[in-house]
């Protein structure tokens, strides 16, 4: 993503652009490049939003205070430790300026926006790239060799696009060992992880840690743009002045209240999603177990990273799949990956198997 020139690149596939090229409706495209819940949106949510569409006729709360309180109650947090924003993206781009960041270390390969936020603010940044031989799980012990002069560290956990998860106990030790450094832990995909609540750092309340929480992925509502930032009051005080009024629109705020009040239903929905993903991930990976030209990494989320070998390149397989109205993610522009990596986001069993067959056809 090039913030300086305003040209947005480097993210998942564009179903609208592909649909226009193929001369079909966007709904005909199977988007396996976008990391959202493979199940339908939570039952009742869309009907609720339709019933509350009149919210567009009035200004929402400027600071999303009611939504913040509802989120804090749901997760047993002090509301003073929470900010609501226009997706986690708003926070990612605000943090370097708000914290007066000078030098950033990014655990990679990972989401491009951490680096792009640094570029937008002319902040020096570098990467600690995890090794493929270790399934891209970062080696926490290596950080001391890379953290010199850094004042802020960005970590996506579980990570996009690798799906690798760092244990909360390891992250906690790291963050406590360097109280002079800000740690930004993006937990946007944590809801997909089995027993994710126990692996989150959201409730630890460490004074130098910022947790990012997204509703877009797990609840399949990326178009509403809802994200939360959880941190210490000292850090909240630094970031709050950089939040634009009315960052979260009225429909999005209504969605937050609905989801936070439906605790039992939400817990059931998340468990159903996790169980579904765990099964589908195993089935999908098993489909390629004897195929030497592609390696799939296990991961912990709803997406799977794959590496091609031989003469196969990411650009070629993505082009082939798009001809069959299936989008998968070309990962060649992730720092630390090459033109042989792709990411596939799981859907329903039928779609997953159809996509697997298409991939195998390409590799045959």
The CATH superfamily label of the largest domain reads Type I PLP-dependent aspartate aminotransferase-like (Major domain)
Order of helical and strand elements: HEHHEHEHEEHEHEEHHHEEHEEEH
Q: CATH class of the largest domain, anyone? A: Alpha Beta
Number of strand elements? 13
Major pleated sheet? 7 strands, mixed
Unreliable residue runs: 1-9
Per DSSP, the total helix count is 12
> What is the straight-line distance between the termini?
34 Å
CATH-derived architecture of the largest domain: 3-Layer(aba) Sandwich
Approximate helicity band: 25-40%
Structural class: alpha/beta
- Cα radius of gyration in angstroms: 20 Å
Summarize the structure.
The chain is of the alpha/beta class and 364 residues long. It folds into two domains: 15-41 and 265-363, Aspartate Aminotransferase, domain 1 (Alpha-Beta Complex), CATH 3.90.1150.10; 45-262, 3-Layer(aba) Sandwich (Aspartate Aminotransferase, domain 2), CATH 3.40.640. 35% of the residues lie in helices and 15% in strands.
List the helices and strands and how they pair.
Layout: H1 15-22, E1 30-31, H2 45-51, H3 65-74, E2 82-85, H4 87-98, E3 103-108, H5 113-120, E4 124-129, E5 152-156, H6 168-177, E6 182-186, H7 196-199, E7 209-214, E8 227-230, H8 233-239, H9 250-261, H10 263-286, E9 294-296, E10 303-308, H11 314-323, E11 326-327, E12 329-330, E13 341-345, H12 349-363
Parallel strand pairs: 1-11, 3-4, 3-5, 5-6, 6-7
Antiparallel strand pairs: 2-8, 7-8, 9-10, 10-13, 12-13
Helix pairs in contact: 3-9, 4-5
């Amino acid at each position: 993503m090039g913030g300086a020139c305003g040209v947005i690149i480097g993210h998942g596939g564009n179903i609208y652009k592909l649909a226009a090229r193929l001369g079909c409706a966007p709904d005909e495209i199977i988007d396996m490049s976008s990391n959202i819940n493979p199940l339908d949106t939570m039952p009742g949510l869309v009907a609720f939003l339709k019933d509350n569409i009149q919210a567009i006729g009035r200004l929402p709360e400027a600071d999303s205070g009611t939504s913040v309180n509802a989120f804090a109650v749901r997760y047993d947090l002090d509301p003073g430790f929470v900010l609501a924003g226009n997706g986690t993206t708003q926070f990612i781009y605000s943090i370097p300026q708000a914290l007066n960041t000078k030098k950033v270390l990014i655990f990679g390969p990972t989401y491009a926006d951490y680096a792009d936020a640094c570029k937008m603010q002319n902040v020096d940044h570098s990467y600690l790239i995890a090794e493929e031989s270790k399934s891209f799980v970062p080696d926490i012990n290596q950080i001391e060799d890379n953290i010199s002069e850094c004042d802020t560290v960005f970590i996506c956990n579980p990570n996009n696009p690798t799906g690798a998860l760092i244990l909360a106990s390891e992250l906690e030790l790291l963050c406590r060992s360097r109280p002079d450094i800000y740690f930004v832990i993006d937990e946007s995909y944590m809801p997909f992880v089995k027993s994710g609540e126990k692996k989150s750092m959201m409730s630890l309340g460490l004074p130098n840690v910022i947790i990012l929480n997204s509703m877009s992925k797990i609840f399949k509502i990326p178009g509403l743009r809802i994200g939360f930032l959880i941190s210490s009051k000292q850090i909240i005080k630094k970031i709050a002045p950089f939040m634009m009024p009315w960052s979260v629109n009225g429909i999005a705020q209504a969605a937050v209240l609905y989801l936070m009040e439906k605790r039992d239903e939400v817990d059931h929905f998340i468990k159903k999603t996790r169980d579904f993903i765990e099964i589908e991930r195993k089935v999908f990976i098993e489909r390629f177990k004897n195929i030497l030209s592609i390696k799939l990494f296990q991961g912990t989320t709803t997406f799977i990273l794959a590496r091609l070998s031989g003469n196969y390149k990411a650009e070629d397989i993505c082009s082939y799949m798009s001809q069959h109205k299936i989008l998968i993610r070309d990962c060649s522009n992730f720092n630390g990956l090459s033109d042989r990596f792709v990411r596939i986001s799981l859907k329903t069993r039928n779609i997953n198997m159809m996509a697997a067959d298409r991939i195998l056809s390409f590799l045959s």
